[in-house]
Amino acid sequence: MTKLDIDYDRKFLNSSTKQLYLSKEDERFLINKWQLEKDAKSLNKIVLSHLRLIISIANKFKNYGLPINELVQEGNVGLMQALDKFDLNRDLRFSTYSSWWIKAAMQAYILKNWSIVKIGTSAAQKSLFFKLKSIISKIEKDNNSHFSDYHQQKLADEIGVKFKDIEEMKGRLFGSDQSLNFSLSDNSELESQDLLVDEKPSPEQNAIYNIDCKKISNLINEALNKLPEREKIIIGARQLSDNTVTLEKLGKDLGISKERVRQLEGNALKKLKSNLQGKVNKKHYFLSVM
After folding, report:
1. I need a surface site. Which of 88, 116, 160, 188 has the fewest CB within 10 A?
2. 203-276: which CATH topology?
3. Global pTM?
4. How many helices (H) and strands (E) does the chain have?
5. How far apart, in whole angstroms, are the C-alpha atoms of residue 4 and residue 8?
6. Which residues have C-beta within 8 Å of that of residue 160, sequence separation ≥ 6?
7. Annotated domain spans of the chain
8. Any long-range contacts for 207-212 (C-beta under 8 Å, 24+ apart)?
9. Fold (topology level) of 3-114
10. Residue 122: what pLDDT?
11. Helix 229-238 / helix 203-225 crossing angle, nearest 10 deg
């Protein structure tokens, strides 16, 4: 953060403390005027009266390395979202309702700007990102010991994430991003990116895979064409469709019982296996329909 940012934050914080709180009646009047008429003056009064709340929440996230004025701006975004969704028929103060939206907006901004590495997508992973430091500190204090693998596994089981998720999150929270052009040593021309392994299939592997898939597809089509028409319909509906058709529906469509459809499906699968066996190299292929 630059000196200009710090000065700006100090002035901003000082000015916010001078803003007056709204009474419940005034608050509801202004919210109603904004929701119905989009009155800018009403909006301005609401935002200014909640600056202290936004700054208070922003201060809880100040250790994530982002300027507090940026967090406050994102908090204002959350406040605006809350303002449009607030139900005046509920007997609830707007500050109570908007706190969740303000916090959510700040957290989303932190996740977006914390690292070029994706933090996580599940709710448990995002919660872990914001709570891990305090959780580790509490565990170490309660047990008077270092946060061990045992504690880490126990925590993973309790909050529903993997052991490695916590390990990766610890690296992000307690470490820092490093350039891929970072030299491995003063005497080496190798950079970090030189040791990265590309785990994607090579062009040759992709080509072989596509050829193999085409061969398998042709073999399956040949085997299917040898089946009686009714069995071919059943296999197509039950095994080769994205939306599997139930035995009951197929029975109605074909004019037979559900149990008869089951028998025909079993017989058809046995025939397919017999027709395909020996044509496909078992070391490289596995037919899920078997």
Report:
1. 116
2. Arc Repressor Mutant, subunit A (1.10.10)
3. 0.42
4. 13, 0
5. 6
6. 124
7. 3-114, 123-174, 203-276
8. 212/284, 212/285
9. Four Helix Bundle (Hemerythrin (Met), subunit A) (1.20.120)
10. 56
11. 140
